[in-house]
Sequence to fold (367 residues):
Amino acid sequence: MYLYVFLSALYRLSCGALILAINWLMLVENNTPFYLAVLVALTFVPAILVPLFYKNKKQLSGLKLTSYALLASFFVSFLLFFAHNHIVILCLNTTLWFFFFIMESSWEMWFVALAKKYSQQKILQFSSFSMSVNQISLMLGPVVAAFIFKHNPKEVILMSSLIFLFLFFSTFFLSHKEEIANEELKEELKRDTKIQLTGLECALIFIWPTLALFNFMLPVQVAYHKGDMIEVGILDAAMGLGMIFSSILLAKKMFYQLFIQYKMSVVFLIVAIVFWSFLENFIFKIVSVFILGLCFNISRIFIRSVLAQKYEAYIVGTLVSKANSYSFFLIVISLLIFYDKVSINYIIPFAFAILISLLLPLKTKNG
Fold:
């Protein structure tokens, strides 16, 4: 499990830097956020196709699927390094996200397969720990990109592609050592486990829209207020810190009840919206996105731990891929309505995080 955490964290580090670099590159080379809105919208088109992978009962294990997707991500991101035309960048970025969405499911399949060895409490701990480490990586990615490669986003793209290549070799080696993985997967597929549609499963649909609209609104809001890439990196890092802190809170039963059962996340998120809307000081912007990261990630950790207990790895992969495909339509509609409404588009990720919190069950089957 710890090797899984390390490799997934390195992947998130690369993704965090790469997403910021591509978004900033698209924004600063144009006089309008329109191209960035198109980029973000097209990013989620591949999510519609990913569920097709899970219709084939000869599905690869989560580890092998991750390995092959990493190799493809290396090639596409390497081509992005040489791309200059906006249309070419849009096409390559869309292709890259096809493999990212495959990995959104395959990393979770791998986690669930590993989690079956542990108790309910251990699963919650590992879910919390792995997501915290991943958020540290996502936090460091944009910060490294902003400070070290401040004037050359292209270098960030090249470095990210090389990290993908390293991860491919690592996971490919591990997959060859995983001798019984395919047999375990065959046993899982024999079980007639069906997806039960509850608020928990519906909440998955809002996960990516929250992140997508945050990634869109952040550079737009900073650029609108005459800020620079460093401010984007700081705010992105603040959200990452909130996500890291969420795992500490969720480990305490009192805070677990406060945020999950009594829905205090909703109150905190409303306060965060007020901070961003009416307080101009940059410190309050940082506090606002910190709260967003805190409440949003508490919900994600809870969802992930419950799914690992409730379903087998293959079912989780199917569920996540389907939720991501439905997310595309929600993202496109949101961008069509709000992409040029700079005075209010920052509210959307907060609103989605509130919806996720409201959809979570007050209690799980295991208490």
Notes: The first helix runs from residue 2 to 28. The radius of gyration is 19 Å.
